[in-house]
Amino acid sequence: MMSFFQMYGQKILTAIGVHFLYVLVSVSAGFVVALILGILLSRVPGLARLALPVISIFQTVPGVVFIGILFLYIGMKPATVIVALAIYAMFPILKNIYVGLLEVDRNLIEAAKGCGMSPIERLLEVELPLAVPSIIGGLRMATVYTVSWAVLASMIGLGGLGEFIYIGIATNNNALIVAGAVPAAVMAITLSLLIDWAKWRRAGKTGQQ
Amino acid sequence: MIQFENVVKKYGDSVILDHLSFEIEEGEFAVLIGPSGCGKTTTLKSINRLIEPESGRIFVEDRDIMESNPVALRRKIGYVIQEIGLFPNMTVAQNIAVVPKRLKYKKDRIDQITHELLEMVGMSYDEYAHKYPSELSGGQQQRIGVLRALAASPPIVLMDEPFGALDPMTRSVLQDEIIRLHRKLKKTIVFVTHDMDEALKLADTIIFMDEGRIIQMAGPDEMLENPASELIKQFMGKRLATNGVELLTAADFMKPHPASAYRSDGVRKGTEIMARRKIDTLLIKNEDETYAGSVTIGNIKKFGKEARTIGDIPLTPNVITYTTSDAAESFEKLLDADSDFVVVLHQDDTIAGIVTKTSMARAMADALWGDE
Questions:
Q1: Average of pLDDT values for A129-153?
Q2: Distance, CA of B367 to CA of B372 (rounded, Å)
Q3: Are residues B188 and B294 in the same domain?
């Protein structure tokens, strides 16, 4: 056991760092894109009817296939992994932003109009704040998924915790599989709890449920 | 202040506002009322351009509203919606500040306004300003909804069934408050309701609408006296059945079965009745049941020792009226008389009841608000 950690300890730490970085960067990028698209979709009703089915079809393309295709075009760069993960992370966030905005009480939007809020003020001060619980829900889902999808990075030799799992499977070394899987699981749970905590704190602050 | 000229609004084939024309004066409390779908809410929302008509013109402060920027227009017009409509993500103070902030008021001025407004409805700033709407009761929330509409001192306030969702008690309190605010601030208020009681209580002018047209526009008294259509009569409901106070008789107002004794009853029996019913005057009947007069506790004390029967004590005459007499006449007698009550007699001079100030007040309340 000791010798295992002596041999792989440093590598595992690096892999955790790389893995976490993939998750952080791609979820952040996905979030920004989702926010812009979600707002756009909620403003233009016809657009949503067109875009949502396309997105849900796209979502069924397996991650492995998608990374493979991107690999052909972009090559063996971290950008390949990040672009792929960001696109996958975007879907649940986008859906929740759209639904969250759509579910804002029509009465409140009318009240905001009646108070003389401009469309942009309405969005920033009423609609988005009220959609936050739903948006955070999407963010959490995206984060948890991305932690597991990031395992695929090692498929094209770009590190992360997946490396241990793939090598472990290839060499029939259970210790290596565990060394990759356990930190990934812990990372997913920790991030999920962290987001829940942020949501709970905010809810406490605004008296919302 | 607000003028409609031939305003037409259609949704597809159905006409919601049918060549609507009317004018609301400055400082007036106008109530729009009518059955569902009569166009009252559409009319209200046309004033701040939440709904825009197909044709016709609407003037606010002598300016065609289609020529003003809708956002700027709405900041000049307070708006209170049904179901409260406070922003749940903002505190009470932030909700009140929504319009002043957009009008770029300075922060300390906004603070001052918030203090003053909360004080005006009896809510302490320290206790409530930093609470979120979900922490308030329904009545408190709607108070804040009204304050938010008033915060930037708009000359006009629109209210769309603001008290509809509240329990009757809270609604009544808020109605009193809005009357007080209107008197104090002299705003022009346009108020939508489907509740005629509310309209009669609040309005300077009631605008009764049906199928996108005005059926009658009149003050509450005028509408009560001369309702212009069957539909309005239905809305008035119970109040009209009695057709005002004039047709009521003393019998409708009296308290029946007052305490009484025969002349031949013993003094002791008389005082027992008075003690039991907690009264200081006892009506006295002759043996044939006709009214004879009354004895007071004062006279019983004075003459009771020598007297054997009540008949021996000097009787005090009372103001009397008959069951068929006009109620108004009985009231006048009661108010003119020194006595606390008027005795009501049947045609054969037997005792029917008494009218007191309490029974009068209760009966008038019943006549005005129904006895629900």
A1: 90
A2: 11
A3: no
**A202, closest residue in chain B (CA to CA):** B89
Q: How close A106 gets to chain B, by Cα (Å)? A: 9
Q: A173, A167 in Cβ contact below 8 A? A: yes
Domain boundaries, chain A: 12-206
Provide the domain limits for residue B156: 2-241
> Under an 8 A CB cutoff, do B98 and A115 touch?
yes
CATH 1.10.3720.10 for domain A12-206, yes or no, is yes
Task: List all residues 6 or more positions away from B19 whose beta carbon is below 8 Å from its beta carbon.
Answer: B6, B7, B8, B56, B213
Q: Please name the residue of chain A whose CA is at the shortest distance from the CA of residue B94.
A: A125
Cβ <8 Å between A111 and B85: yes
Contact status, residue B49 vs residue B59, Cβ threshold 8 Å:
no
Number of domains in chain B: 2
List residues of chain B with CB under 8 Å from any CB of chain A. 48, 50, 71-75, 79, 81-83, 85-90, 98-99, 102, 131-135, 148, 158
Q: Residue B206 belongs to what H/E stretch?
A: strand B205-210
User: Each residue of B8-45: pLDDT tens digit?
Assistant: 998 888 889 999 999 999 999 999 999 888 999 999 99
Last residue of a domain, one of B221, B241, B261: B241
Look-up of token digits 């008290």: B163
- Which tokens in the block code for residue B328? 């108004």
Assign A148 to helix, strand or coil. helix
What is the rounded distance in angstroms from the CA atom of residue B17 to the CA atom of residue A209?
Answer: 41
The answer to whether A134 and A34 are in contact (CB under 8 A) is no
In sequence order, which residues have a C-beta less than 8 Å from that of residue B253 and are 6 or more positions away?
Answer: B327, B330, B331, B355, B359, B360, B363
Claim: this prediction has a pTM higher than 0.80: no
